[in-house]
Design brief:
By secondary structure, this protein is mainly beta. It is built from two helices and twelve strands; from the N terminus they run βββββαβββββαββ. The strands form two sheets. Strands 1, 2, 3, 4, 5, 6, 7, 8, 11 and 12 form a ten-stranded mixed β-sheet that branches. β11 and β12 (184-194) form a beta hairpin. The radius of gyration is 17 Å and the shape is globular. It starts with 12 loop residues before the first strand and ends with a strand.
């Protein structure tokens, strides 16, 4: 099945979900970032951003790719710096994020792992917290594990994070506009799942 991909995306993809109206936003360059998620049993480890871009939002652990680093090296470094843990990260997907008025796009490479070593530890940038990926709230050694807090995550994360949890590779694009309150709201989006060559 062939589909028309938004500008900046490539691959052998099947349309998973899309929406919004208007033209895709133009951009001249991409800046590369990573975002890593730890999934274990019926839980996912997210971090509450304590400062900087995305403050007070839950997200995976990641940031800019430094010169000379591979994408995987950057993802592993950021996970260690922000959560204090190591994990055998695998590439899970790609997300192109463009904001109206920006001259460049965020190219965010998504990674995940089902195991890790160390103890998730709060850093000056992120506070790690487990959330339930089950349809109901989970109990973990007499502690309640709340559901994934999509309402305090980036607009659109609910379109692709379930694919990461399911282990389905994806590629997506989100074009957003910043509101007066500083929140980014999706204008247009497209997500596709990767068709295996097997």
């Amino acid at each position: 099945m062939t589909c028309i991909l938004p500008p900046g995306l490539e691959g052998n993809l099947v349309d998973y979900v899309h929406g919004g109206e208007g033209d895709w936003l133009p951009f001249d360059q991409k800046r590369f970032y990573t975002n890593a998620f730890i999934i274990q049993d019926d839980k996912i480890l997210l971090g509450l951003k304590k400062r900087g871009f995305g403050i007070n939002k839950y997200n995976g652990f990641g940031g800019k790719v430094e010169p000379g680093e591979t994408l995987t090296e950057a993802a592993m470094r950021e996970l260690k710096e922000e959560a204090g843990i190591d994990a055998p990260l695998e590439h899970a997907g790609s997300l192109l994020f463009m904001a109206k008025g920006a001259e460049w796009a965020f190219q965010i490479e998504i990674f995940s792992a089902r195991t890790y070593s160390g103890t998730p530890t709060e850093s000056d940038e992120m506070r790690p917290e487990w959330f339930s990926i089950a349809s109901s709230v989970a109990s973990d050694a007499d502690a309640i594990v709340p559901p994934i807090p999509y309402e305090t995550m980036w607009d659109g994360d609910d379109n692709w994070l379930p694919l990461v949890v399911q282990g389905r590779k994806f590629v997506g694009r989100v074009d957003s506009v910043m509101q007066d309150d500083g929140e980014f709201v999706m204008m247009r989006h497209w997500f596709g799942t990767v068709i295996s060559d097997n």
